[in-house]
Specification:
This protein has helices spanning 2-21, 23-43, 46-55, 57-71, 80-104, 117-127, 130-153, 163-187, 197-204, 206-215, 227-237, 285-293, 308-317, 343-348, 367-370, 400-410, 447-471, 523-533, 540-548, 554-566; strands at residues 259-265, 278-279, 295-300, 353-358, 378-380, 416-421, 441-442, 477-483, 503-510, 521-522, 585-586, 592-599, 602-608, 614-618, 621-623, 626-629, 632-635, 644-650, 656-659, 663-664. The protein is an alpha/beta fold and 670 residues long.
Length: 670
């Protein structure tokens, strides 16, 4: 028996030596091993990976082929050991990142997430402790040191590389990967579009899905796309719309249009939908009453646990995100290049002024650059708000939005459309026990869920406060409120009474007697539905949703219009996009410098509407600034006659969002 083991051991060693000596075989074996390792990191279970391998061997081999193709480029260098090691580390690093991302949200790591690194940096402190951040930094330094060590110590091949053989091999792997993908998608073994991206990663594997999200962006050209087809569709869209949702107006009286407010509530949903969970009292009394009294329904949103900007995109534009690449954020791709039809542009035709409010950083998702592409007139972010209350995780509480909405309504003589984006319900949700919670879980020890429930309880109080303010407002108002996505808990369809993790809820409140009509909607249908309640039918996509939402070819026509508007010939606009970027003003009330004076060696910058995010700049150089009040900033820097002083607003990332006009300091004339 001992001799058999020795013989077997020698055979294994010989096989491994042959694999190591044959670089082409080594690529394939490395692809198989790395694929197993990446899936192990994603699924966090050895048994789950083995089950995946046995249940879907073709898909497993296809993913291994993808990895083998990428690592085969190491054959082009004489430092093969280093190149193979580096490429292997990159794949394993992607697997680790995906594993970590899945801890904080239910959607996996995609290529478009790489475009959000800047935004991720600004919120890192809300998800990770100081020790965890230090540990990550040390781990990255160790990893970089390890890579350098491999580069330094790894041998360099002396023999000549047969580039023709290597090129032939890499080309063969490319063709094998390409035709394998083509056969898989045409046969239905692989999917090109992912309705549920989390399930897709489990079904089709990390390498294929991540690669798909890297390559597959934008909207594919519809097979029947042509100017004639678009023109025919527009003719039907432009037909008069008969509506009956609004109250009848007495003859001889002019019906006034309402102000329109969209309130997007961060990670907000009714936790009563979670099966088996009981609370000490109803955490959402206001929302429950409003749901029973006003038009409401389920709202299907494009993501779970994250992706606020994508729900936002669907509601603002009326576009279906399913037609874009998997995991894509249009805010980070196409809206960098072009304007896009939106409720802001559409309501300009009726004389509306449009405002965005968000009690978080103005640069998050680069909204300060995106909103001009969507036609908004003003954007009031956290840097322009006087926030007095924050959550334990550092998010601004939503109560501040009541005052900001009121300011926006009063800031213009025209009708207003306000898009308010809340942040209080944002993750992460700490595991520490709350000392004196307003709402307690009964018979359940889940501190993270209890923390979340207490945050949305306060958000519900904010809703009550907001509606109390709007009830007293002298003009007509429609308020559409809804959750942007479910929170980042590991909830499944089986855990919820409604059986859908992609559903939140919406309510349409008004102060002038609209009829209650309950209806389930997609997020991209919401704005058209709200405008219909207001008697407004402006915008191509608005009219399209209002006319075609029940038709058989509804989604095909919607994709056709979206492609034409963003990627096609813009036939809907007669070949030229008429939508020009707006001149976005930051802040509802302008920040200004009135004068600068010196008192006991301290310089006082006096003005209006300063916040804790106001910074003084002298001759273009940032000066250490102390916030004193909304009309006073303090600096200790000595000023000279002729110094040019401005005040600018900047958040945690130090990006200047706006600045005041220059004030010339003069000791004789303040």
């Amino acid at each position: 028996m001992e001799g058999e083991y020795q013989y077997l051991g020698k055979k294994v060693k010989t096989t491994l030596r042959h694999i190591g000596e044959n670089p082409y075989v080594f690529c394939m074996v490395l692809g198989l091993l790395l694929n197993f390792g990446v899936e192990l990191l994603s699924r966090k279970s050895f048994i789950s990976v083995c089950s995946y391998l046995l249940d879907r061997p073709v898909i497993f081999f296809h993913n291994s082929l993808i990895i083998a193709f990428t690592v085969s480029f190491a054959l082009l260098t004489k430092r093969r050991v280093f190149a193979f090691s580096l490429l292997a580390i990159i794949w394993l690093f992607l697997g680790i990142v995906n594993s970590v991302v899945l801890v904080f949200r239910t959607t996996p790591f995609t290529a478009p997430d790489l475009l959000l690194l800047k935004s991720a940096y600004t919120v890192m402190g809300s998800y990770l402790t100081g020790k965890q951040i230090i540990f990550i930094c040390i781990a990255l330094c160790v990893l970089l040191g390890f890579i350098f060590l491999i580069f330094w110590k790894a041998p360099k091949r002396k023999e000549r590389i047969s580039y023709w053989n290597v090129a032939f091999y890499i080309g063969g792997l490319f063709l094998a990967t390409y035709f394998s993908t083509l056969a898989g998608t045409q046969s239905g073994v692989l999917a090109e579009q992912f309705g549920n991206i989390g399930m897709a990663y489990m079904e089709y594997g990390f390498p294929y899905c991540f690669g798909n999200s890297l390559i597959n962006t934008g909207i594919d050209k519809p097979a029947d796309y042509s100017p004639q087809i678009v023109d025919e569709l527009i003719i039907h869209v432009e037909k008069p719309i008969i509506h009956s949702s609004r109250p009848i107006v007495e003859e001889g009286k002019e019906e006034k249009l309402p102000n329109i407010i969209f309130l997007q509530l961060e990670s907000f949903f009714d936790p009563a939908h979670i099966k088996g969970i009981e609370f000490s009292e109803n955490p959402l009394p206001n929302f429950t009453y409003l749901r029973a009294t006003y038009s409401s329904g389920y709202l299907s949103v494009p993501s779970v646990g994250a992706g606020t900007a994508n729900t936002e995109f669907e509601v603002i534009t009326g576009m279906d995100l399913d037609f874009f690449g998997p995991g894509e954020y249009p805010y980070k791709t196409i809206l960098k290049e072009t304007t896009c039809e939106s409720i802001a542009y559409n309501l300009k035709e009726k004389g509306y002024k449009s405002h965005v409010l968000h009690n978080n950083d103005g640069t998050f998702y680069e909204r300060n650059q995106v909103f001009p592409q969507l036609g908004f007139d003003s954007f009031t972010s956290l840097e322009y708000m006087d926030v007095k209350e924050y959550t334990e995780m550092g998010w601004a509480k939503d109560f501040v939005l009541t005052e900001e909405i009121q300011k926006s309504l009063k800031s213009t003589k025209e009708l207003d459309m306000i898009y308010a984006i809340s942040v209080q319900g944002h993750g992460s949700y700490p595991a520490e026990k709350l000392e004196n919670p307003y709402i307690s879980l009964i018979g359940e020890e889940n501190n993270s869920l209890e923390y979340y429930v207490n945050q949305i309880y306060e958000m519900d109080l904010f809703l009550g406060e907001l509606i109390a303010m709007l009830q007293k407002y002298p003009e007509r108002v429609i308020l559409a409120m809804y959750g942007d996505h479910l929170p980042g808990f590991e909830l499944t369809e089986e855990d919820l009474t409604n059986g859908d993790i992609f559903q939140t809820e919406y309510i349409i409140w008004d102060n002038f007697g609209l009829e209650k009509k309950d209806r389930d909607l997609e997020a991209y249908q919401l704005s058209a539905y709200v405008l219909e309640q207001a008697g407004l039918y402006n915008g191509i996509l608005t009219k399209y949703h209002q006319v075609f939402s029940g038709e058989e070819n509804y989604l095909a026509g919607l994709k056709l219009l979206q492609y034409d508007m963003l990627y096609g010939d813009q036939e809907v606009y007669n070949g030229e996009n008429p939508l020009k970027p707006s001149k976005l003003v930051m802040g509802t009330n302008p920040i200004s410098v009135s004068y600068v004076t010196e008192e006991e060696g301290v310089f006082l910058v006096k003005g209006k509407n300063f916040t804790k995010y106001s910074h003084v700049s002298v001759n273009g150089t940032e000066i250490e600034t102390i916030y004193n009040s909304s009309d006073t900033l303090l600096i200790h820097e000595a000023l000279q006659d002729g110094d040019k002083i401005t005040v600018y607003q900047a958040g945690k990332d130090s990006v200047w969002l706006s600045q005041t006009q220059e004030y010339i300091y003069n000791t004789d004339k303040p």
